[in-house]
């Protein structure tokens, strides 16, 4: 696990904090933007392209190896993410949705890969870029297929709602569609990866400090507990990483469907 220990005194342990998310440029005197998270994002993109190329460049009738993995991921995204929201339009959007799912999944898994150990979705800018892209697609599809007026009418219209109630309902649903949906899309992913990284760093630093740095009869129990919690939290974090990739892609599918169908 990524272990960051701030030491102000040789005999004091300090919990890791926001310094976990502060990175200097990769090269002395290099561009300020070229940091470890940016390198991880580039590496993740290469991995996604490599996996898709290995799986689908030369497909066989009987899938094996990478093709089996690729087809499993494709079927999972199609049946569990695309079709429930997009229905007959699912196949048209599979390229985008599969890319989003694999990208976010690899971003998240990087948090537990040795020597990398940083989930780039914990940097709010990266999931925000994906969410804003999906948001732009949603608005474009809504206006293109229904026009501005028709798109807004489809969002606001609620069968059976009295006319007087639209003064209360319309602002709320419009705020949900055009504001809340955007922020909740990327904030959910960011918050989970941010919190998970902090927790893993906390427990791993406890284990490292009390077992390797300051081994004492009283502290060894705390150190062992830190190691056990690190193992348990790593297993739980792996589950969360997959779940958050699924939820992010599922919301992307739902937002695209809302633009196509002109409804919320």
- SS summary, helix count: 6
Seen as an oligomer or otherwise, the chain set is: single chain
Q: Based on Cα principal axes, name the global outline.
A: globular
As residue ranges, the low-confidence spans are 1-9
Instruction: Give the rounded overall mean pLDDT.
Output: 89
Classify the beta-strand content into a percent band: under 5%
Task: State the major sheet.
Answer: none
Helix/strand-derived category reads mainly alpha
Proportion in helices: 55-70%
What does this structure look like?
By secondary structure, the protein is an all-alpha fold. The chain has one domain (22-261). 68% of the residues lie in helices and 0% in strands. It has six helices and no strands. The chain has helices spanning 36-56, 66-86, 94-109, 125-156, 166-213, 220-261. Helix 2 (66-86) crosses helix 6 (220-261) and helix 4 (125-156) runs antiparallel to helix 5. The longest helix is centred in the C-terminal third of the chain and has 48 residues, at 166-213. The two termini are 41 Å apart.
Short recap of the structure:
The chain is mostly helical. The chain is 68% helix and 0% strand. The protein has one domain (22-261).
Characteristic terms for this protein:
ion transport; hydrogen ion transport; ATP synthesis; F0_ATP_A_sf; transmembrane helix; disordered N terminus; 264 residues; 6 helices; mainly alpha
């Amino acid at each position: 696990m990524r272990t960051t220990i701030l030491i102000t005194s040789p005999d004091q342990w300090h919990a890791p904090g926001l310094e976990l998310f502060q990175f200097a440029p990769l090269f002395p005197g290099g561009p300020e933007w070229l940091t470890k998270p940016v390198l991880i994002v580039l590496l993740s993109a290469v991995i996604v392209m490599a996996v898709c190329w290995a799986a689908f460049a030369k497909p066989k009738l009987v899938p094996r190896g990478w093709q089996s993995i690729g087809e499993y991921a494709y079927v999972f995204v199609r049946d569990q993410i695309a079709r429930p929201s997009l229905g007959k339009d699912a196949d048209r959007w599979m390229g985008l949705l599969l890319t989003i799912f694999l990208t976010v999944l690899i971003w998240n898994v990087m948090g537990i890969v040795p020597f990398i150990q940083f989930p780039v979705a914990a940097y709010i800018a990266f999931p925000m870029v994906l969410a804003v892209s999906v948001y732009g697609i949603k608005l474009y599809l809504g206006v293109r297929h229904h026009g501005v007026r028709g798109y807004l009418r489809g969002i606001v219209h609620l069968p059976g709602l009295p006319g007087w109630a639209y003064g209360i309902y319309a602002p709320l649903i419009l705020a949900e569609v055009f504001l809340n949906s955007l922020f909740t899309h990327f904030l959910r992913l960011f918050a989970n990866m941010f919190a998970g990284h902090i927790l893993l760093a906390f427990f791993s630093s406890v284990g490292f400090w009390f077992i390797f740095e300051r081994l004492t009869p009283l502290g060894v129990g705390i150190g062992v507990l830190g190691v056990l919690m690190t193992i348990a939290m790593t297993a739980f974090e792996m589950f969360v990483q997959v779940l958050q990739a699924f939820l992010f892609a599922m919301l992307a599918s739902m937002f695209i469907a809302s633009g196509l169908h002109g409804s919320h």
